[in-house]
Amino acid sequence: MAEGERQAPPDSSEDAPAATQNFIIPKKEIHTVPDMGKWKRSQAYADYIGFILTLNEGVKGKKLTFEYTVSEEAESLVATVVPTHLAAAVPEVAVYLKESVGNSTRIDYGTGHEAAFAAFLCCLCKIGVLRVDDQIAIVFKVFNRYLEVMRKLQKTYRMEPAGSQGVWGLDDFQFLPFIWGSSQLIDHPYLEPRHFVDEKAVNENHKDYMFLECILFITEMKTGPFAEHSNQLWNISAVPSWSKVNQGLIRMYKAECLEKFPVIQHFKFGSLLPIHPVTSS
């Protein structure tokens, strides 16, 4: 990642809110296109993109089989969702989880739902349930499991892509695993961007690398030449290095997802990811 795009982690356990904090049910704040300015200046935007970039840095050069540790707080999350003393945060945090699995009426799913799950994980970090030390486990264990569940739902229910740009979009459903997956492959001894359109290379390495797992899923779900059904990815395969792919995908994510009104109009804001302007530290 370029130095200019690195940001400090959004929070650590020392910054976690006190149990007396007034948590609120998140709600929509972006109602018109001009409201997008509020979003881009908000504390929520700063914390969200900071979280994404922190995880991006954490998984750089590591395989999905990398041995990572999980804090005791994260273990308690598995058993009890959140500790009892933070029970007041549950209604606020749960909103993002509910928003992350697609729309049950339209039977669709897209990058806005994916962003809701990332926001859910960000909130868990902000209340101290997950720590920055857990960043590798957040991507490789929790988010990767989320991907597995969503792929099963996509296959079972043939979910419609929400806001898909067709062949001109990166992918019908996901974006973050391409960012973090390209970070995993930075400085790989032999896998280069050109190899992800090589069926043999994908089949032999997909279990270790999130990016290649995404490519495998695409080829299972779509027919025809790769260059036709996934033109953007085909073009990316010509980029000379994974670091340049990673930097380009971060810029593309900001432009095509975080700065698009049709996506952000559905994002919800509360006390943990607030709409108020970012405060200088």
From TrEMBL:
One of its GO terms (molecular function) is ATP binding. This is Serine/threonine-protein phosphatase 2A activator. Residues 9-19 have a biased composition (Low complexity). It is an enzyme of class 5 (isomerase). Belongs to the PTPA-type PPIase family. It catalyses: [protein]-peptidylproline (omega=180) = [protein]-peptidylproline (omega=0). InterPro entries: Phstyr_phstse_ac, PTPA_C_lid, PTPA_sf. Its EC number is 5.2.1.8.
